[in-house]
What does this fold into?
Amino acid sequence: MTAPHLLPAPELERSSVVANNTMNRERGLTGVNSYARELGVDPVTHLAARPAPPSWLDLCSGEGRALREAVPRLPAGAVLTGVDLVGPLAPAPTPPGLQLLTASVAHWSPSRTYDLITCVHGLHYIGDQLGLLARAASWLAPEGLLIAHLDPGSLRLPDGAPAGRAAVAALRAAGFRYSARNHRLSLHGPRTVRLPFRYLGADPTAGPNYTGQPAVGSHYVPAPVAAAGPAQ
It folds into this structure.
Protein backbone atom coordinates (compact mmCIF):
# COMPACT_ATOMS: atom_id res chain seq x y z
CA MET A 1 0.00 0.00 0.00
CA THR A 2 1.43 3.37 -1.02
CA ALA A 3 1.50 5.97 1.73
CA PRO A 4 -0.45 9.14 0.77
CA HIS A 5 0.98 12.63 0.77
CA LEU A 6 -0.11 14.18 4.07
CA LEU A 7 -0.69 17.88 4.58
CA PRO A 8 -0.20 19.92 7.77
CA ALA A 9 -3.11 22.05 9.03
CA PRO A 10 -2.34 25.31 7.14
CA GLU A 11 -2.12 23.57 3.75
CA LEU A 12 -5.07 21.30 4.49
CA GLU A 13 -7.30 24.26 5.32
CA ARG A 14 -6.46 25.85 1.96
CA SER A 15 -7.49 22.74 0.05
CA SER A 16 -10.73 22.82 -1.93
CA VAL A 17 -12.20 19.91 0.06
CA VAL A 18 -11.90 21.80 3.35
CA ALA A 19 -12.07 25.51 2.52
CA ASN A 20 -15.01 25.26 0.13
CA ASN A 21 -17.17 22.67 1.90
CA THR A 22 -20.85 23.57 2.14
CA MET A 23 -21.78 21.50 5.18
CA ASN A 24 -24.33 23.17 7.49
CA ARG A 25 -24.95 26.12 5.18
CA GLU A 26 -28.68 25.39 4.96
CA ARG A 27 -29.24 23.04 7.92
CA GLY A 28 -31.71 24.46 10.42
CA LEU A 29 -32.62 23.62 13.98
CA THR A 30 -35.54 21.25 13.41
CA GLY A 31 -37.27 19.55 10.48
CA VAL A 32 -36.10 17.30 7.66
CA ASN A 33 -32.65 18.83 7.14
CA SER A 34 -31.91 19.75 10.72
CA TYR A 35 -29.62 19.50 13.69
CA ALA A 36 -32.31 17.71 15.70
CA ARG A 37 -32.52 14.96 13.09
CA GLU A 38 -28.78 14.60 12.56
CA LEU A 39 -27.93 14.67 16.27
CA GLY A 40 -30.84 12.56 17.49
CA VAL A 41 -31.38 15.31 20.09
CA ASP A 42 -33.31 18.57 19.88
CA PRO A 43 -30.72 21.11 21.06
CA VAL A 44 -33.35 23.49 22.48
CA THR A 45 -35.11 20.73 24.42
CA HIS A 46 -31.78 19.56 25.81
CA LEU A 47 -30.68 23.06 26.77
CA ALA A 48 -34.06 23.97 28.29
CA ALA A 49 -33.49 21.23 30.87
CA ARG A 50 -30.18 22.77 31.94
CA PRO A 51 -29.83 25.39 34.67
CA ALA A 52 -30.27 28.86 33.19
CA PRO A 53 -28.61 30.39 31.36
CA PRO A 54 -27.67 27.44 29.10
CA SER A 55 -24.76 27.44 26.66
CA TRP A 56 -24.14 25.79 23.27
CA LEU A 57 -20.95 25.57 21.23
CA ASP A 58 -21.32 24.48 17.59
CA LEU A 59 -18.09 23.54 15.82
CA CYS A 60 -18.03 23.83 12.01
CA SER A 61 -21.23 25.86 12.25
CA GLY A 62 -21.42 27.09 8.63
CA GLU A 63 -23.98 29.89 8.38
CA GLY A 64 -25.00 29.38 12.01
CA ARG A 65 -28.63 28.99 10.98
CA ALA A 66 -29.48 26.49 13.73
CA LEU A 67 -27.93 28.74 16.36
CA ARG A 68 -29.88 31.74 15.10
CA GLU A 69 -33.12 29.79 15.23
CA ALA A 70 -32.37 28.64 18.77
CA VAL A 71 -31.79 32.09 20.27
CA PRO A 72 -35.46 33.17 20.63
CA ARG A 73 -36.41 29.74 21.98
CA LEU A 74 -33.93 29.80 24.85
CA PRO A 75 -33.98 31.73 28.15
CA ALA A 76 -32.50 35.21 28.27
CA GLY A 77 -28.79 35.10 28.93
CA ALA A 78 -28.19 31.93 26.93
CA VAL A 79 -24.72 31.81 25.34
CA LEU A 80 -24.45 30.38 21.83
CA THR A 81 -21.14 30.21 19.96
CA GLY A 82 -20.48 29.02 16.43
CA VAL A 83 -16.99 28.44 15.05
CA ASP A 84 -16.33 27.84 11.35
CA LEU A 85 -13.23 27.97 9.14
CA VAL A 86 -15.01 29.92 6.39
CA GLY A 87 -17.71 31.57 8.50
CA PRO A 88 -21.10 32.83 7.25
CA LEU A 89 -21.05 33.52 3.53
CA ALA A 90 -23.95 35.95 3.91
CA PRO A 91 -23.09 37.94 7.07
CA ALA A 92 -26.04 39.34 8.99
CA PRO A 93 -26.48 41.05 12.37
CA THR A 94 -26.31 38.55 15.22
CA PRO A 95 -28.85 38.64 18.06
CA PRO A 96 -27.69 39.12 21.66
CA GLY A 97 -26.16 35.98 23.08
CA LEU A 98 -24.95 34.64 19.73
CA GLN A 99 -21.35 34.85 18.55
CA LEU A 100 -20.25 33.49 15.17
CA LEU A 101 -16.48 33.20 14.89
CA THR A 102 -14.42 32.62 11.76
CA ALA A 103 -11.51 30.52 12.96
CA SER A 104 -9.80 27.16 12.57
CA VAL A 105 -11.12 24.70 15.14
CA ALA A 106 -7.74 23.01 14.88
CA HIS A 107 -6.27 25.89 16.91
CA TRP A 108 -9.23 27.67 18.52
CA SER A 109 -10.14 27.13 22.18
CA PRO A 110 -12.98 28.68 24.20
CA SER A 111 -12.58 30.75 27.34
CA ARG A 112 -15.55 29.02 29.00
CA THR A 113 -17.32 25.66 29.20
CA TYR A 114 -20.58 24.67 27.49
CA ASP A 115 -23.67 22.62 28.32
CA LEU A 116 -23.86 21.35 24.74
CA ILE A 117 -21.09 20.95 22.16
CA THR A 118 -21.98 19.80 18.66
CA CYS A 119 -20.10 19.07 15.46
CA VAL A 120 -22.57 18.05 12.74
CA HIS A 121 -20.57 16.28 10.03
CA GLY A 122 -17.75 18.73 10.67
CA LEU A 123 -15.08 16.21 11.66
CA HIS A 124 -15.06 14.99 8.05
CA TYR A 125 -13.07 18.15 7.20
CA ILE A 126 -10.75 18.24 10.23
CA GLY A 127 -7.21 16.92 10.02
CA ASP A 128 -6.64 15.89 13.62
CA GLN A 129 -10.12 14.59 14.40
CA LEU A 130 -9.06 12.69 17.51
CA GLY A 131 -7.16 15.69 18.83
CA LEU A 132 -10.19 17.94 18.48
CA LEU A 133 -12.43 15.42 20.25
CA ALA A 134 -9.96 15.14 23.12
CA ARG A 135 -9.78 18.92 23.49
CA ALA A 136 -13.55 19.37 23.22
CA ALA A 137 -14.09 16.86 26.03
CA SER A 138 -12.50 19.35 28.43
CA TRP A 139 -14.78 22.17 27.23
CA LEU A 140 -17.93 20.55 28.62
CA ALA A 141 -19.70 21.99 31.65
CA PRO A 142 -20.59 19.56 34.45
CA GLU A 143 -23.11 17.07 33.02
CA GLY A 144 -22.66 18.69 29.61
CA LEU A 145 -23.15 16.74 26.38
CA LEU A 146 -20.91 16.50 23.31
CA ILE A 147 -22.26 15.01 20.06
CA ALA A 148 -20.30 14.71 16.82
CA HIS A 149 -20.38 12.64 13.65
CA LEU A 150 -17.36 10.41 13.18
CA ASP A 151 -16.43 8.25 10.21
CA PRO A 152 -13.98 5.59 11.49
CA GLY A 153 -13.10 4.81 7.88
CA SER A 154 -11.38 8.19 7.63
CA LEU A 155 -8.88 7.28 10.37
CA ARG A 156 -5.74 5.70 8.98
CA LEU A 157 -2.27 4.48 9.92
CA PRO A 158 0.87 5.95 8.29
CA ASP A 159 0.69 3.57 5.32
CA GLY A 160 -3.05 4.12 4.82
CA ALA A 161 -4.17 0.96 6.62
CA PRO A 162 -7.40 1.30 8.68
CA ALA A 163 -7.14 2.66 12.22
CA GLY A 164 -10.85 3.22 12.81
CA ARG A 165 -11.57 0.14 14.91
CA ALA A 166 -8.67 0.83 17.27
CA ALA A 167 -9.59 4.52 17.49
CA VAL A 168 -13.23 3.81 18.35
CA ALA A 169 -12.12 1.32 21.00
CA ALA A 170 -9.83 3.98 22.52
CA LEU A 171 -12.62 6.57 22.46
CA ARG A 172 -14.99 4.16 24.20
CA ALA A 173 -12.35 3.41 26.81
CA ALA A 174 -12.09 7.17 27.42
CA GLY A 175 -15.84 7.42 28.07
CA PHE A 176 -17.31 8.17 24.65
CA ARG A 177 -20.23 6.27 23.18
CA TYR A 178 -20.33 5.48 19.48
CA SER A 179 -23.31 4.47 17.33
CA ALA A 180 -22.09 2.83 14.13
CA ARG A 181 -25.61 2.98 12.71
CA ASN A 182 -25.76 6.78 12.94
CA HIS A 183 -22.00 7.50 12.92
CA ARG A 184 -22.63 9.50 16.10
CA LEU A 185 -20.13 9.91 18.90
CA SER A 186 -21.28 11.27 22.26
CA LEU A 187 -19.78 12.10 25.63
CA HIS A 188 -21.49 13.07 28.87
CA GLY A 189 -19.53 15.21 31.30
CA PRO A 190 -16.10 16.84 31.07
CA ARG A 191 -12.88 14.90 31.35
CA THR A 192 -9.26 14.84 30.35
CA VAL A 193 -8.86 12.57 27.33
CA ARG A 194 -5.56 11.18 26.16
CA LEU A 195 -5.79 8.85 23.20
CA PRO A 196 -3.03 6.40 22.18
CA PHE A 197 -2.42 8.01 18.81
CA ARG A 198 -0.08 10.67 17.45
CA TYR A 199 -1.37 12.74 14.55
CA LEU A 200 0.77 12.76 11.40
CA GLY A 201 -1.22 14.80 8.88
CA ALA A 202 -4.21 14.56 6.57
CA ASP A 203 -5.01 13.53 3.03
CA PRO A 204 -7.60 15.77 1.28
CA THR A 205 -7.70 13.38 -1.69
CA ALA A 206 -9.14 10.52 0.34
CA GLY A 207 -12.42 10.72 -1.63
CA PRO A 208 -16.08 10.51 -0.56
CA ASN A 209 -17.01 9.11 2.84
CA TYR A 210 -20.33 7.60 3.96
CA THR A 211 -22.12 10.91 3.29
CA GLY A 212 -21.17 10.71 -0.38
CA GLN A 213 -19.19 13.94 -0.11
CA PRO A 214 -15.39 14.32 -0.46
CA ALA A 215 -13.76 14.15 2.96
CA VAL A 216 -10.37 14.18 4.64
CA GLY A 217 -8.34 11.13 5.62
CA SER A 218 -6.65 11.57 9.02
CA HIS A 219 -3.45 9.61 9.63
CA TYR A 220 -2.08 8.56 13.00
CA VAL A 221 0.65 6.41 14.47
CA PRO A 222 -0.06 4.41 17.66
CA ALA A 223 1.52 6.13 20.66
CA PRO A 224 0.84 4.78 24.18
CA VAL A 225 -0.17 7.44 26.71
CA ALA A 226 -1.19 7.69 30.34
CA ALA A 227 -4.76 6.75 31.22
CA ALA A 228 -7.46 9.44 31.07
CA GLY A 229 -9.06 10.86 34.19
CA PRO A 230 -11.68 13.37 35.32
CA ALA A 231 -11.14 16.98 34.25
CA GLN A 232 -9.77 19.22 36.98
Q: What stands out?
A: DSSP finds seven helices and twelve strands in the chain.
